[in-house]
UniProtKB/TrEMBL annotation:
PANTHER family: CARBOXYSOME FORMATION PROTEIN (PTHR43018:SF3), PHOSPHO-2-DEHYDRO-3-DEOXYHEPTONATE ALDOLASE (PTHR43018). It comes from Chromobacterium sphagni. Residues 1-65 form the DAHP synthase ferredoxin-like domain. It comes from the Bacteria. InterPro entries: Aldolase_TIM (IPR013785), Class-I_DAHP_synthase (IPR052899), DAHP1/KDSA (IPR006218), DAHP_snth_FXD (IPR041071). Transmembrane segments: none annotated. Residues 106-294 form the DAHP synthetase I/KDSA domain. Pfam families: DAHP_snth_FXD (PF18152), DAHP_synth_1 (PF00793). This is 3-deoxy-7-phosphoheptulonate synthase.
Length: 313
């Protein structure tokens, strides 16, 4: 159930609603917007009626949310969320971007990528985020040495860092190294324990998705993180896998209507470097809040430099 407070509601009114929710055995999630506060009641709603809350002072309306994802729904928070990772704001007025590379890069390659991101005027670099880990010989989990190298290099170049997290046992390492963001790949969207653990942190989380996961399954993964108390979530669309890769901008537009979370797109992951510019423009036109751009081993996006690509958006 979602309880929308009026713009004139006092803090005591908000607290009274939270206490009523707790008395019913549910958890309350409070989202404060610039004009209104929205409170979500999460748990078994049997026996709860909107009238129980609409009679309280400061309540504008109460409504049931039909979908399983409640905290991340547009119904629970009509205003767009803004998630800040380092100096980048996703969901703000201007599109934001981050760039980086896949895992198992050596220090020289990481440094080349970091220099490219810095020269393009960026402030956030990621490492990891490959589409599918099909072979044990071609995939390496980002372990402690790789994370330490990423943190060292991004610090030297004045960049914030987001790193792939695929194993909950490495979460403490990410926190100790003060990574600015956590990157969850499409393969990990069904790893409920990993999602719950990231939900207990205060680190921004980028949830990547491809066509192997439905849109509702994606939002449920985001709900799993948000239910732990971490509402700093960015959704990243990686497009289709298969013989005809691409990006469905209609799905991006639907997501903008369905959730208040910022949605970004990964055009290089969706269709390769050659189509990255066209898909970037299409994604932004459909309402994407920004882009995730994957570079080659020299820190470039295909034949275009990162700076050239961004200047043409």
């Amino acid at each position: 159930m979602i309880i929308v407070m009026s713009g004139r509601a006092a803090e005591a009114d908000i607290q009274a609603v939270v206490e009523r929710i707790a008395a019913a055995g549910l958890s309350a999630h409070v989202s404060r917007g610039s004009e209104r506060t929205v409170i979500g009641a999460v748990g078994e709603e049997r026996g709860l009626e909107p009238a129980m809350f609409e009679a309280l002072a400061g309540v504008e309306r109460a409504l049931r949310v039909v979908g399983e994802y409640r905290i991340v729904s547009r119904e629970s928070q009509p205003e767009d969320s803004v998630v800040r990772i380092g100096g980048c704001e996703f969901g703000g007025r201007a599109p934001a971007w981050l760039a980086g590379c896949g895992p198992a890069r050596d220090a020289a390659e990481l440094e080349a990528v970091a220099r490219c991101v810095q020269e393009a005027g960026g402030g956030l670099m990621f490492c990891g985020g490959t589409r599918r880990h099909v072979s044990p010989y071609h995939y390496q989990v980002l372990g402690v040495p790789e994370l330490e190298a990423l943190r060292d290099i991004t610090s030297r170049f004045g960049l914030a860092a987001a790193a792939e997290l695929s194993d909950a046992r490495l979460l403490e390492v990410h926190l100790e190294l003060q990574m600015d963001g956590l990157l969850i790949t499409p393969d990990s969207l069904r790893n409920v324990e990993l999602l719950r653990e990231t939900g207990r942190t205060n680190k921004p989380v980028i949830l990547q998705r491809d066509n192997r996961t439905s849109l509702s399954g994606w939002l449920l993964a985001a709900e799993c993180v948000a239910a732990g108390g971490n509402h700093q979530i960015v959704l990243c669309e990686c497009g289709r896998e298969g013989d005809s890769p691409g990006l469905d901008v209609g799905e991006l537009a639907w997501l903008r209507r369905e959730t208040h979370l910022p949605v970004i797109a990964a055009p290089v992951a969706a269709a390769g470097p050659a189509l990255s510019l066209a898909l970037s423009r299409a994604a932004l036109a459909a309402g994407a809040s920004g882009l995730l751009l994957q570079t080659d081993r020299q820190g470039r996006v295909a034949s275009d430099s990162l700076a050239s690509l961004l200047s043409r958006l």
